[in-house]
Write a structure and sequence with these properties.
about 150 residues; mainly beta; 8 strands; about 30% strand; globular
Length: about 150
């Protein structure tokens, strides 16, 4: 199986052999049940060298039995702000309401997902990306439930 380095904007659900070099811009735990002691997922916003086009959410979930131990593992390996080359991950359709980024797909980490730390400066990936909207369009965004505000 050959792997091809590509960019976030290019990935889709049709292939499984993607390789991306990304910065973890943000990372946070999500609890769907506020009384739960453990997180249900660990979410990340990923940026690449073509960040002006898009960013992507990566999710590590404890809701599936085959992924029970993944959150602690990736919390130890992945650091917010660092750059990684990642491979062996799944890509699915992002059907959640209140999406953190405007993107139709989501990256799913699994037990085969590999994160290789990259030294800062070897790739040009910014630490942040902002998508400002014209003031005139803010009113039409207030009732949308598909993105976070």
């Amino acid at each position: 199986m050959s792997t091809t380095k590509t960019y976030i904007a290019d990935i889709d659900t049709k292939r499984r052999d993607w390789t991306l070099t990304v910065r973890i811009a943000r990372m946070w735990e999500v609890k769907y049940n506020p009384t739960s002691e453990t997180a249900d997922s660990l979410d990340m916003v990923l940026l690449d060298e073509q960040q002006a086009k898009t960013s992507k959410i990566a999710r590590i979930s404890n809701s599936r039995t085959d992924q029970e131990g993944l959150i602690p593992h990736f919390k130890e390996v992945a650091k917010e702000g660092s750059v990684y080359t990642m491979s062996q991950f799944g890509v699915g359709n992002n059907k959640r309401s209140h999406q953190q980024v405007q993107n139709d797909s989501i990256i799913w980490f699994n037990s085969f997902t590999s994160l290789k730390f990259e030294l800062e400066g070897l790739v040009d990936i910014p630490k942040h990306n902002f998508n400002f909207q014209p003031f005139e369009q803010l009113a039409e965004l207030t009732n949308r439930k598909d993105i976070l505000k």
